[in-house]
Amino acid sequence: MTKKPSYYNHNGFLMPIGFPIEGFTSALKYQAQPSDIFLVTYPKCGTTWTQYILWLMQHQGEPLSPSEKLEDYIPHLEEVGKDKIDKLPKPRVIKTHLPYDLTPYHPQAKYIYVARNPFDCVVSFYHHTRGFIKHYDFAEGTFDDFFECFIKGEIDFGDYFDHLVAWYHHKEDENVLFITYESMKNDLKAIIIKIANFLESDYLKCLNNEEIFNKIIINSSLENMKKDQQRWSSKRPENMPQFVRKGEIGDWKNHLSSEQKQRLMEKFMMRIAGTELKNIWLDQANFR
Ligand code: A3P
Question: In the structure, what pLDDT confidence band is assigned to residue 171 with cuts at 50, 70 and 90?
Answer without folding.
Answer: very high
